Amino acid sequence: ITYLRYGSSIYQAFITGTEQGFSASFFMPMQADTGSFSRGSAVGVSSNGCEVAFDEWITAVDEGNHSPDSLPPSIELWIDGYRGETVPNVSGDAILRASLSDSSGICTIGGGAGRSILLSLDSQGFDVSRYFTYDINSYTCGELEYSLPELAEGDHRVILVAWDGMGNSARDTLDFVVTDTAEDLLSSVFVYPNPGEGQRCFSFETSSAGTASVTVYTVAGRAIWRATVICDEGYNQVIWNGLDMDHDEPGSGAYIYRIDFAALGGASCSVTDIVAVVRER
DSSP of 21-52, one letter per residue? Predict the structure, then answer.
């Protein structure tokens, strides 16, 4: 069976335009095959919501007048929420981000070394070319966003390798440590006294610094008290004076409390349980 298999995108970006239309410039990689089977497509959306699209065949030729370029791409690699950290401690779902730039563009044709953006995660290889998008109105700079698979606790290493449109390559390496899953961020939650009346102490441990919000609700779901505190890694306390937000004592009965914790790295979790009010008078 004879069939035509389309290749990967050479250029993918958002372009701004005017009422007269738009224009796009991009660098045709030296690694691209020439011929009459190139294809361009676009979707335009106007400010009033109207849409228009086109899909056209384009002939790719090599005229030979290439500008000299021997410089490799620039690559910056980081975990979302941990930019600038040398060896970040990561908890929860991890998203890998990278900024790539080169005057000859970034080659995303696909098909292996020299034609793709390649990622090595603990020596396991991935082609992540399709996760790269150029910045608005640019054909030299862009970002890659890739959700890493679930990883075991411990040390990990990612290596990103990219080639520009002239075949120059560069790489960046990032070491990071997976410390906890999101469920492990908040532990040893305890309320004292419970049941009881008057002042209560909500105590808990966190595996990272962050922000905790403690809310007490009626069984109907109405919030009667809330406090937000900055937490250090380890043991933390939040004191409730036993009054609602109108400074009244709540009636005897069961109430629902919820502790929401957001770690500095972006991971979050929550714990919900019962606190009982027993008034002796």
Answer: B--------TTSPPEEEEEEEEEEE-TTS-EE
